[in-house]
Amino acid sequence: MDSPTPIEQTPFVKQLAANDRPTRDKALESLKSYLSSPLRTLTPLDHLKLQKGLFYSLWLCDRPIPQQNLCSSLASLISILPSKSLAPFLRAFWQTMAREWGNVDVLRMEKFLLLVRRYVAASFERMKSADWDSQVVTEILGVAREIPLNVTDPKIPVGLRFHVIDVWVDELERVGAFADEDAEEEGLDEKLLEVLMRPLRELGEGSPNKTVRRKSMEAWGDERLPWVEKVVLEEQETNPDEWGGIED
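Given the sequence above, the corresponding structure tokens read:
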């Protein structure tokens, strides 16, 4: 039986960064086939080499619509990964983003902001597709705590932290985490929501950066979260006849 081809020897790694879209698309399909094999084992270095290729495939993508499509395609890789590859793949992605963030110029930043949003969204989608299995949730949140939402590591770019905090609640809403009375959707159990939001609370309580702490607690206090709604209702019930000043 032939041994698996090392990832650095597969042609699609370089082709991911090709200038023409057909070559990149073909490389992406080959990559999906390569990564989805449960028999294949990649080392942490293999994952880093792969993520470097993925990073530069987006770097070289110029027009808005192809950029959006590529961001979605790259994030969709999360859905086809075998369980054993999930955390190493995500870890290498966030390590690459943290390493390269400071090198992204203003003209390219928007597409990398979108890539980060898509990865956060795809991570929640992977949890949802696993029916919010505790092992999958713990694994994905563990990587988030380790890198983009790390409380104390000064090497994590503040801009990367800010953006992950910015999109966190939005992407939870997109996967149906919150109750929607109009659509008759119940949303997730409050205890599970607290688990999903806990990395932001930890940042809000423990980050040495005052701005990060404030931004994290603003997300924790987002009005879409059930505990925030309860606090508002309790305050209204406690002070129903609170004096509001002299009316004109």
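The CA atoms of residues 13 and 162 lie 30 Å apart. Try to locate this feature in the token string yourself.
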